[in-house]
Amino acid sequence: MKKMLLCLLCALLLIQQARAISPLPEDSFDLGCTSAVLMERSTGTLLYAKNAHKRLAPASVTKVMTMLLVVEAVENGSLSLEDTVTASAAAAGMGGSQVYLEEGERMSVGELLKCVAVVSANDCAVALAETLCGSEAAFTARMNRRATELGLQDTVFRNCTGLSGPGEHYSSAWDIAVMSRELLSHTWIRDYTTVWMDTIRDGEFGLSNTNKLVHGYHGCTGLKTGYTSEAMFCLAASAERDGVEFIAVVLHGDSSADRFAAARTLLDYAFANYALVSLLPPESIAPIPVEMGMEEMVNVAPRGNTVTVAEKASLRELTMETELPSAVTAPVEAGQVLGQVTLRWGDRVLSQLPLTAAESVERRSRGRIYRDLLGQLFSLNGAR
How far, in Å, CA of 286 to CA of 304, rounded? Predict the structure, then answer.
């Protein structure tokens, strides 16, 4: 086995695994809310949790899932941002936050999505739901299916807006962080969630983002506010600096100021204390010789995420060990694990990344081996 020990003062990059990171105790912060979660976006590493799986009314933070379904529909071709939507009576009749759509008013999918992201417009959310699925009820059923696909066990939607209605409508800080992660993986949604002020209807109607962090917090990328008397003050906030993005979810805040203060506290802590570290050596990994193979070498590729979360205070003490055989014997299957990269902090394993065969290499047949030997023999004779 060849081993390479490297001292890491690595570049900050993006993506998953962090076995050594343990979430902070619940009493680490005084947040003024019932439930909260702090998560690194690209890896899903949990950094802080307070009642993370408590089922609570999420109010308009529900629209994280609404936006996710719309974004996915745009990407799979079911919708276009340029498509024109005609507002129904049901959409125009919504209460709460709205842009006062009139029945029969026409607006593009992109404009409606902007209104949902910026001012939490319930009428626009229903218009999008009806356009995509025919009715809000059918769209809500799709929201619940998508929640199941994401592994969310503490979420049930009854509508696409988060307004109080018949039946239980709930989620959890953990589930909202997961769906926020999924939404932010579609990078262009930030074109909407980072809008501070804008207009619709040819400048006649102004929009001002309900998420005050968009204007006042460095690197804020969104994401969604919510309030009802039942849910109190809720927020899914995200921010990115130097290639690392964190998500802070706050549910049932005591006041609007408390939810923003709680999110700031969590995000400030994350940026001050955590970094993303590459799990790959600075130089490329050389191909490995293949014995008895149709090809002489096989390329090596990492499997899974190539970065991990680490505490900034530990960066100078991190070491990385790459383990690979000096050669492998054919046949080799694409994806076959050949070795691994191990990131350590002293004796503590922080993360491991499998290294696999990038392609298959078939074993040489006996006939092929015989022909190759004859070819080598004739070549030697000819050289005399």
Answer: 19
Left, alpha or beta for 120 (phi > 0: left; psi -120 to 50: alpha)?
left
Determine which one of 50, 63, 114, 224 is catalytic: 63
Tokens of 379: 């070549």
Residue 370: both structure tokens together: 């015989």
Q: Could you give the CA distance from residue 313 to residue 328 in angstroms, rounded to a whole number?
A: 39
Q: Catalytic: 60?
A: yes
pLDDT per position as a tens digit, 196-212: 999 999 999 999 999 99
CB 87 within 8 A of CB 59: no
Rg (CA), the chain: 26
Residue 286 DSSP symbol: P
So what's the pLDDT on residue 305?
82
Rounded to whole angstroms, the Cα distance separating 57 from 254 reads: 14
> What is the 3-state secondary structure of 102-171?
CCCCEEEHHHHHHHHHHHCCHHHHHHHHHHHHCCHHHHHHHHHHHHHHCCCCCCECCCCCCCCCCCCCEE
Segment 77-95 shows an average pLDDT of: 97
Nearest 10 degrees: Cα torsion 144, 148, 151, 156: 30
Which candidate in 35, 97, 120, 180 is catalytic? 120
- Asked about 314 being catalytic, the answer comes back as no
CA dihedral for 151, 157, 163, 166, sign (positive or negative)? negative
- Among 35, 42, 50, 60, the active-site one is 60
**Residue 177 contacts residue 236 (beta carbons within 8 Å):** yes
The most distant pair of C-alpha atoms in the chain lies apart, rounded to whole Å, by: 95
